[in-house]
Design a protein that fits this description.
Elements lengths: L4 H15 L12 E8 L10 E3 L5 E3 L5 E7 L4 E6 L5 E7 L7 E3 L1 H9 L7 H9 L4 H11 L5 H4 L3 H15 L1
Parallel strand pairs: 1-7
Antiparallel strand pairs: 1-4, 2-3, 2-5, 5-6
Helix pairs in contact: 2-4, 4-6
């Protein structure tokens, strides 16, 4: 039995909407935000960089560090930067409707490692992380290592683990 056209068209439209594609008349998914970002290339290593959204969409990073990603308009999301070997190079937390450019580098990576959603809004949480007593030393460590090492490599370094633990303990207080 053939499905009636009146049933197929709405289902197809719903599938396109949920997949992040534009609709029949070019309208954007109302739940996604086409956010502009910039990777601080001097702060991270790797080549063939791509920004990866929570939906696993890959967006190439330009020679100047610029990229675009489709992110949620209503929920906090992580955007990761991978190199051509699929090693994690940096990441950031994207807060819905933040009017600023999404900058991804050493600072955003350090903050994202300590980010845990709470009762406060995302921007306030990121500000609090940046003002923690342990944060300057942790961020300086990340900034000094990211140009040469992937995050995958950093996570096995005892000094990284010590600094991360100190900040997580301070954050939990």
């Amino acid at each position: 039995m053939k499905a009636p056209i009146a049933l197929i068209v709405p289902l197809l439209a719903l599938a396109l909407l949920l997949s992040g594609c534009t609709g029949f008349f070019g309208e954007q998914n109302p739940f996604l935000w086409h956010r502009e970002g910039k990777v601080q290339l001097s702060e991270i290593g790797g080549s063939g960089l791509v920004a990866v959204s929570p939906s696993s969409e890959e967006f190439p990073v330009g020679a100047d560090g610029s990229f675009y990603a489709n992110l949620s308009k209503t929920e906090i999301a992580s955007v990761v930067i991978l190199d051509s070997d699929k090693k994690l190079r940096a990441y950031s937390v994207s807060v819905p409707n933040d009017p600023d450019l999404l900058v991804i580098g050493a600072d955003s990576t350090a903050k994202a490692m300590l980010f845990k959603e709470g009762k406060k809004n995302g921007l306030e949480t990121l500000w609090e992380i940046g003002n923690m007593k342990c944060y300057p030393q942790f961020a300086a460590y990340i900034k000094s290592r990211l140009p040469q090492k992937s995050i995958n490599e950093l996570t096995s370094d005892p000094e990284f683990l010590r600094l991360l633990s100190e900040c997580k303990n301070e954050r939990a207080q």
